[in-house]
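I wish you would study the pair of lines that follows with an eye to the fold:

===
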Amino acid sequence: MTLRTFHHLSGAMLGLVLSLGVACAAGAQTRDGVNVGGNSAFSKLVPADKVEQGAAQQYAQMLSQARAQNALAGADDPQVRRLRAIATKIIPFANVWNERAKGWKWEVNLIGAKQINAFCMPGGKIAFYTGILHELKLTDDEVAMVMGHEIAHALREHARERMGKNAATGLGASLLSQVLGMGDIGQTVTQYGAQLLTLKFGREDESEADLVGMELAARAGFNPRAAVSLWQKMGVANKGAPPEWLSTHPSGNARIAQIEANLPQVLPLYERARKARP
């Protein structure tokens, strides 16, 4: 490949990404709740089905390992029942954020470990660690804020976006072939799943997940004010520094200020859901 050809292909890829971004912005509809725009165009560079299949493989392996160590809580565990009940209320509001969520096989599990940790993999694979429940003594509303945040990462396809950005930065020939419709990037399902274990979200992703997660929880009838108390507890537990799972999050006062600034957008949703309860 000559340098001129390389630059031509790079320009073509950049043009495609920009045009996808315009299309996403144009497709965004006016709605109540928070406004974070459309999903990133970079996610289009990576096949969603492979990412979700890879996530399912990794999730199954994690559960198998936890089970072997007697660290996987059973379906009758009170905390498992609690988590699944909260998820049942939140998940119906996921589809509006991502049409693929309609076909996801959602799972919610609890792993016995001291880490202050929780996650939702692409495809709706949710896990909480006992540490986050016990150390922070989370209320149901606060659990909903954590769960909504993690679900938001999956709905907004932040992992897929990160993979797309990593591939685009490399500007490899295989990527350019994929972008220009000349072939596949060559990644296997297992390789996509392995990438999920090393990806870290950026501050913009984390801030977006805070807002979308807060809206999801509010629509499900959980008090969004709990997002403030949640991060206050996080700050105390970690002496002002975010735990490992939040290493790239905006921290402390900045996070709480953003949440409080967006409460007017989600409190009406919470009040509506609360009044609709039997």
